[in-house]
């Protein structure tokens, strides 16, 4: 019996699998819980589960050893402590994108939409980038018959404005603390910040307080449409930067919760145009396969795969 979890700032997915088959699964709003162990206890109570052999939790935050603190929640996820508290044989704590990256191999043809076919090369790195509550990054390097993950906090590198509108957003956010990260712009809260920055220069535009409202208004409200177009362009440029960093000719995968919701905007061309705009290496960029992941259970599938390994670890 395997326990797996995908822990994000907005939602937490937990699942039990027996013999490789998920037998019980639940989704929880993360912010309704002050700590992680009570959530695990509630889940196991619902599942009436016992005798868990191994577990893996993908956590949205930096991992040190076998422990992690979530970036957007006041949670500490401690592998040894959870193993002791719940009588689990082995508990692995992984970065959420390291776990999600391991789930890429489990995807089927219906789980992705292709933005750019590219020319994939066998034996070359893959890259997973995903905007949601935050902005996650993970590379996959070929290793034997599988993949080794290289996780980091790439969402917290500096945001580089590419035009006057993006510079306006940078200036609007820089007034707050003097530094603007990619995650400040390319995330759910980032879309709200983009709209607020544009609205500060546009009299009469309606106040829209969250990404869902901005997305819903885009069909009729020009400023909301501009905000989404700016978001998509910044997202594409960021993905292109990292594609070059890792030379991810095995494929660049766009995950996270936002991409499926903005799929028409991603397919409209702005994302790929910004991804390709590379000056000296512009001719190389069409060769990178570029796909949007639709399956929101990617992190959960990857955590299950890690937990099922005899030695664990992503």
Give a written overview of the molecule.
- With 314 residues, the protein is an alpha/beta fold.
- The chain folds into two domains: 2-102 and 297-308, Nucleotidyltransferase, domain 5 (2-Layer Sandwich); 108-294, 3-Layer(aba) Sandwich (Hexokinase, domain 1).
- Helix content is 37%, strand content 25%.
- It contains twelve helices and 14 strands.
- The protein has helices at 36-47, 79-86, 96-103, 164-177, 182-185, 188-199, 211-217, 222-246, 258-261, 263-267, 270-276, 298-308, and strands at residues 2-7, 11-18, 21-29, 54-59, 63-64, 67-69, 76-78, 90-95, 112-116, 126-131, 135-143, 146-152, 251-255, 290-293.
- The chain is globular.
How many extended strands?
Answer: 14
Q: Spell out the helices and strands N to C.
A: EEEHEEEEHEHEEEEHHHHHEHHHEH
Q: Rounded to an integer, what's the Rg over CA atoms?
A: 20 Å
CATH C-level class of the largest domain: Alpha Beta
CATH topology name of the largest domain, in short, is Hexokinase, domain 1
The biggest sheet amounts to: 6 strands, mixed
Task: List the keywords.
37% helix; 14 strands; 5-stranded mixed sheet; 314 residues; 2 domains; Nucleotidyltransferase, domain 5; single chain; globular; alpha/beta
Write the layout of secondary structure elements.
Blueprint: E1 2-7, E2 11-18, E3 21-29, H1 36-47, E4 54-59, E5 63-64, E6 67-69, E7 76-78, H2 79-86, E8 90-95, H3 96-103, E9 112-116, E10 126-131, E11 135-143, E12 146-152, H4 164-177, H5 182-185, H6 188-199, H7 211-217, H8 222-246, E13 251-255, H9 258-261, H10 263-267, H11 270-276, E14 290-293, H12 298-308
Parallel strand pairs: 1-4, 4-8, 10-13, 13-14
Antiparallel strand pairs: 1-2, 2-3, 5-6, 6-7, 9-14, 10-11, 11-12
Helix pairs in contact: 3-12, 4-6, 6-8, 8-11
